[in-house]
Amino acid sequence: MKHIFLPISIIVIIMAGLLPGVATMTGRTVTAHSQSAQPTASKFAWPEGKRVAVSLSFDDARVSQVDVGAAIFDRHGAKATFYVMPPAVEKRLDGWKKMAATGHEIGSHSVIHPCSGNFTFSRTRALEDYDLAKMRAELKEARRSLRAMLGVEAESFAYPCGQKFVGRGRQTKSYVPVVAELHLTGRGWLDEAPNDPGYVDFAQLTGMEMDGREFDQILPLIEKARENGQWLVLAGHEINRGGNQTTRVSMLEKLLPYAQDPANGVWLAPVGVVARYVRQQRGDR
Ligand SMILES: [Zn+2]
User: Fold this and answer.
1) Ligand 1 center from residue 211 Cα (angstroms)
2) CATH 3.20.20.370 occupies which residues in the chain?
3) How many A from CA of 116 to the centre of ligand 1?
């Protein structure tokens, strides 16, 4: 029981080292995570005094994006980014031409959507069986096809299944450098944080899920990103009233007016538009 005779100042110092937010004898507050409080992102200057950038993005060229989503975006005068595969675009070719012509961004999502062969749908086109040359050829072909079909340059890319590798074991390679070479941006999937505009690698933008969420679940993501001056890229698949991998119409009907109310300080714009702005502000190439 000798330790109870330690001087009180020593005990306070020990506690200050162990506990976050304990005041030391000098009155200074010691915070365990003080390094995370550096306000780098909040200094980023969004246009027109906006405090956060939000991009809405949808993958796979699901037909509901044209059949259901297009009218909702039109009604609110909002623009989104659609990461498409050319074979899927053919199912609603006229609809996608109209989407492109009305200011939505058309990005690439590869040609045949290769993911890990652990997904049975991807076993015959598994990333484990790809190499960088094969991936480079496919990504070039996707851009060429989209140019021919829709007359657009697909500068933005979203990694199918959010997976960024080819090969397996010691032969595994990241294909992020290929995306950086062929595209302005590459977006992930099921990420846990928004992008810090002053820091982010454009070839690895984060994408946070909006499928299956109501607006009261999305709003805190926007509020948190706004506190930090960040760029929130939301990602979804189907657009409908309900169902699997589906961004809810009810959520969009609340999110779009919120994002367009100047009082909320939100810059709602497609991924490519925000990326170009950020790059210019950072003085990147
Ligand atoms: Zn996909």
Assistant:
1) 13
2) 43-282
3) 12
